[in-house]
Amino acid sequence: MRQDAVRGHLDGLLLAVLEPAPLHGYAIITAVQQRSGGALELRTGTIYPALNRLERLGLLRSSWESEGGRKRRCYALTEAGARFLADERTAWQDFTAAIGAVLNPVTPHPHGRPHGQGA
């Protein structure tokens, strides 16, 4: 999948993978890759500036945690982040419905029912 396909949706992707539990940067990259079936591969140079921006906006909070003797910055969704994510999901559903209506129009059936629907 083209890397630019993520543009405009990165915030929603990051917030969505952080919804269940806090994660550190590499785990965020891995979660996006796993959830997308390997179609989306984010780079550290892409996500860390976005994570810092989302934290400045109050949508995420971060803390330093030790894991296996290494300190890692973990990111967690805030209440504002959860609200923003809900809005992003609604906007995404509206967007995909509109694009789907154009790319895959429902062909009217000669008897007044859309093609593909039951009798």
Automatic annotation (TrEMBL):
<dbReference type="InterPro" id="IPR005149">
    <property type="entry name" value="Tscrpt_reg_PadR_N"/>
</dbReference>
<feature type="domain" description="Transcription regulator PadR N-terminal">
    <location>
        <begin position="14"/>
        <end position="86"/>
    </location>
</feature>
<dbReference type="InterPro" id="IPR036388">
    <property type="entry name" value="WH-like_DNA-bd_sf"/>
</dbReference>
<protein>
    <submittedName>
        <fullName>Helix-turn-helix transcriptional regulator</fullName>
    </submittedName>
</protein>
<dbReference type="Pfam" id="PF03551">
    <property type="entry name" value="PadR"/>
</dbReference>
<dbReference type="InterPro" id="IPR052509">
    <property type="entry name" value="Metal_resp_DNA-bind_regulator"/>
</dbReference>
<dbReference type="InterPro" id="IPR036390">
    <property type="entry name" value="WH_DNA-bd_sf"/>
</dbReference>
